[in-house]
Every structure is written in C-alpha cells, then in structure tokens.
Structure prediction request, 412 residues.
Amino acid sequence: MRQSQITPVLLEGGLPPRGAGPGEASPRRTPLLTLPPRGGGQFATEHLYVHIPFCRHKCGYCDFNAYAGMDRIMPDYVGALERELAASRDDSREFAPLKTVYFGGGTPSLLPPELIAGLLRFIRATFDVLPDAEVTLEANPASTDEARVGAWLDGGVNRLSLGVQGFEPRALAVLERKTDAAQATRAFKLARSMGVANVSIDLIYAVPHQSRESWIETLRRGLDLGPDHVSTYCLTFEEGTLLWRRRAEGKVPELDPDLQWDQLDAACEELEAAGFTRYEISNWARPGFESRHNLAYWRCRPVYGAGAGAHSYATDGAQAWRWWNVARPRDYIAAVEAGSEEAGREELSPRHAAAERLMLGLRSRAGLNPPPGFDAELSELEHSGLVERLEGLVRPTRRGLDLHNQVALAVL
Prediction:
C-alpha cells in the first residue's frame, strides 16, 4: 500500500452504487509545528515512514509524489534524508523504540544497493529499532535484483511490497506499466529464494478493457505465486494524470460500475477461498501477515514521515497535529540544508481528531471502541447496514467496507 500521503484524511476505497457513475551535523531546524510538552511518553512515535520519490517511469494513473529522470540526485537526496532524520532526534518529538519502518515512494527499490544499505544502517544507528520490527520496502519488479535484495535483507528489511499491479498485457498497457508478468514472477521468486519471508503484492482492478474473467485470471496468477498479503485497488482517474486526460479525450473508455462491483465480488471470493482475510478496505492477509505499519495509520498512532512530501502525525489522545514536508526533491534537499523542510501543518481540534480516529478505525474490519459524541452518526450508519456493534466495538460490515466513502462522509 502506498504511504506517502496516507496521514491526511483518506476517502479512497469506496465504489459507486450499482448503476451509478465511476467513481553530518545539520543546521537546527525551525519547526512550523509546535507540539505540546512531553508527558509520560504519550507522544512517543513508534512508526517511521521514509519517502523515496524516484521512479524510472511515472505510470499514467499515478498521482503520488514521484518523479522520473532524477537518478543523479539520489546521493544528495539520501544525504538530506539522513540530515532530517538526525535533526528529528533533537527537536521536541519523542521517539520510542520503532515498531515499524516503511520505505515508500516512488520506487524505493530504484536506490542503488550501496545507497539503500547506507540509509538502513543510518536509521538503525539513529533510532532504536525493535528486533522484531516490521521493516517494509516497496519494490518494482524491474528493479528487484540479487544485489538489491541482498542489500535489503542485510539492512533488516523483512517485508517486501511488490508492485505487480497486473499480469494481462492489455491492462498493463492501459496503466502504462513498464513491467510484465514474467518480470513480476521472476522478482517474486527471487525474493523468496533469497529469504524474504513476508511478501505482499499489489493488484489493480476496474481497468478499462479488463473483464471479470481477466481480473479473476490476474487474481489466480497472483495467488499462484504464494504471497502473504494482497492489496487490491480499484483504479481511480485522478485529475492531472495522463490517464485522466486520456479518458477526457475519449481515448480510454469509462468502466461499467456494475463490472467494478463484479470484480470486487470476485476478489472477495477468490481471496477468501485461498485463505486470506479482508482486514481493511483494500487489504487481504494470511493470518499474522497484516501490515503493522498500515494498522498504525488506521489506529491513528503517531508516525514520523521523512522525505520529500512525507506527512507526519502526532496526538495526545485528544487533540492531534499533522505536518508535511516540501514536496519536490530538489526543493526538499535545499530546504533540509536550510533547516526548514516543513512546508505546512495543521492542528486538529478534539472533535476533528476524534472524527478522523473513528473514520480511519472503520476502514479496518476489526473496528474500534468509538469515541464519545458520535451516537447519532453511528446509529444512522448501523441502520443503513454499514456498521455493526459487537462487545462494545463498532466495526464495518462488508457493505461498510465497500462503501467507506459513505461512512467517512457521515462521520466527518
């Protein structure tokens, strides 16, 4: 699952109703964000996100903070990352031993072995990373090779998120993916053979020209690899992307929303039959292989985000604070050098923070103990069959997972 901007309110993941339209020492930083004083470890951060914004090629559907053709600045960027991370240990934020570290992008696997190895060593020297911490790296099949996998494993990466996206040539062409089924299969088998014990794959459905049958074939080919975790994302046409422009020009067709529902139903059937549990809107796992880093987001745990455009989140259990970095890589490098990489921030009132905690908690099938003050909204959602109550918890139904946008709108 992509991480670079997950901390702000997320509304993706829902489908339209049937019959509807588609849906070295560094300078002291001057933080824009003022956190409350430390107290009893309640603000301690246990989760670290590191953004690697480089891509070999930016796919037509992608609106993430990712850039192609910037390989020359990779060493400078990693240097800036290390300066930001070192400075984060000197400001008002308190870090506990890290439970998760997540390298997202972009394409983190593009970093040459010596750069990612050095960055992994730096993080372990700068932070207390728990022995059993989940350390995830997002990888593109085309840049997953023996030297890189070896560097990842030596540095402590124990979970790989492989961006397969699909196997069917026509769907991959629509998505403008520069990888193919053979590369995806080779990358997965290489990772397994070298000892990566936890591998997740991403797959995309609701792609123009993709039938229910071809989607089922994609699912089965993915499952045949033997992943531990599968993320299935409904394609969205994000304004400003190449795919959005191509649809506006009539070069790619709209997808029948009923077919989107059929494809989601097929995913539920195929993945459940293969022993996976849908623990969140778009995420499926074998028992014990749920993404701990993603669960931290959905439970509104404090997360520090380092790198270009990365978002961070802090809370005292009532109020919450969110801030984000300069987005463009060259600007980020210059800003870190000046000690001012934060681009903006916001403070969430107790009510707003509670609403977000409820909304994000209802992305997960486990649900949550709801914060007070939302009885009317939850009663309405329960009446609509979107949530259910069980032993003091409120959790989404299957319908509530499918229509999470409606849950989010009701709560927020």
In short: Confidence is low (pLDDT under 50) at residues 1-34, 36-42.
